[in-house]
Structures are given as structure tokens and as C-alpha cells.
Automatic annotation (TrEMBL):
This is Uncharacterized protein.
Amino acid sequence: MNKLLALISILYLNCAVAKNIEPLNNHSLEEFFTDEKASHTVLERCISLYSAITELTKKKYPELASEFFQIANTLYPYGIISFSKTRKISYEEAEKFFFTNVNNLTNLYIDEMKKNGEKNKSYFKL
């Protein structure tokens, strides 16, 4: 089940297009492993997506929401470290900026998923 949800999440990330959400298919898989900025982009988007899924599912599927919450919280410190490295700023400063970025992106994902949910009766159906 977790693998299926992770796959759906990755596919959604590749297809998502909104004001500030650009597709990840502009990067190669090699870039994600070797380029710190590309890795940071993936971390930031995954954390934001998992946070959005947590918010959207917590009432109807609390156990599922809890799992996504745990994943987001596990990745969160790595996102801050990555942000700190790519921007060459302190961890404390990076934490503030990263929180704002993730919060804004989470809200964008929630908005897009709600629109998609109304249109397709599913948050993930394209």
C-alpha cells in the first residue's frame, strides 16, 4: 500500500502544473542523485505533498494521514539541511525559509488536489 501511494505521489509530482508547481520531468534521475539543488527540489516537494495529503485525509483516513505525517516529519530535517547547503545560510535561517516554502507549496498542492477532487471525484486521478 505504501509503495503504491509513493508511486502515485511521484506520478502526481511529475504531472502537477500550477502557478508555482513545475513538473519534475525537467530533471534527469542522475541530477536528483548528484545535484544538491535538484535533490532539494525533490525533498521540498515530497514534504509538501505528504503534508497536503495529511491535511486532506486526516478526517476520513486518520491512519493513512498519520503515515504521511510521519514521512513528512522524517524528511523535514533533511530538507532544511539541503536548503542550508544550497543557499549557504545557517540552519536556523534555512529552517525559517524552508518552513515558509513548504507551507506555501503545501497550500498549492491542497488547492490543486481539491480542484482535481471536485472534477474527478479523486485527489489523484488525472
